[in-house]
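Help needed: design a sequence for this.
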């Protein structure tokens, strides 16, 4: 009650729906109905509530079905305010959506590799090397897209980068398309760590004199 900004006497005798967001009230009723019909004595859900001053908060609720001394069923609800966590999750999801859009729509050929193996590539990357679909590249070596005469040099860069040693971040090499044709390209590589594993983010573009 204190988190919602109400005094106890302001809510006693009022519908429980009073503190729930209008958009969620039907959901609340459905969840309560399901709890009563299921035969289970507990239920959990995440939902929005509205404070007295109009502020919206997110809560995790654990509902327990109990029997009042007079034999009437009552529902005891325990609430945890998770607003900060929920907002952080929503912000992260929004950022990921925006980054995904940029990644997919970029004219630059962008790929991510781990230990020299493709993890993810964008449509421009697929097109640059004349493949039909990104699935053809997932799990394959990045060296497959480099002409044989350059592979030892590039493999050395990959090994040094994976080992945390100094390696060229901007360099030129020759790319190899699916159909076997070659072209000059410039590569920009940077590394990052995720879940204790090193990944390499690569930007590639075809040089004009390689057209």
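Sure. Designed sequence:
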């Amino acid at each position: 009650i204190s988190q919602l900004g109400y005094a106890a006497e302001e809510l006693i005798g009022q519908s429980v729906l009073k503190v729930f967001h209008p958009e969620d009230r039907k959901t609340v009723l459905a969840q309560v109905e399901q709890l009563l019909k299921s035969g289970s004595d507990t239920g959990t859900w995440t939902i929005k509530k509205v404070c007295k001053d109009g502020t919206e908060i997110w809560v995790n609720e654990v509902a327990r079905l109990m029997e009042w001394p007079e034999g009437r069923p009552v529902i005891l609800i325990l609430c945890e305010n998770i607003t900060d966590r929920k907002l952080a999750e929503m912000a992260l999801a929004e950022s990921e959506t925006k980054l995904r859009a940029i990644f997919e729509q970029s004219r630059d050929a962008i790929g991510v590799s781990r230990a020299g193996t493709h993890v993810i590539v964008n449509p421009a990357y697929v097109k640059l090397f004349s493949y039909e679909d990104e699935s053809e590249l997932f799990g394959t070596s990045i060296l497959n897209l480099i002409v044989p005469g350059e592979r030892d040099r590039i493999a050395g860069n990959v090994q040094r980068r994976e080992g945390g040693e100094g390696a060229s971040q901007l360099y030129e090499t020759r790319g190899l398309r699916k159909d076997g044709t070659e072209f000059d390209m410039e590569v920009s590589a940077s590394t990052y760590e995720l879940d204790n594993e090193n990944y390499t983010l690569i930007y590639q573009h075809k040089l004009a004199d390689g057209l």
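Helices lie at 8-11, 25-38, 83-105, 123-128, 151-162.
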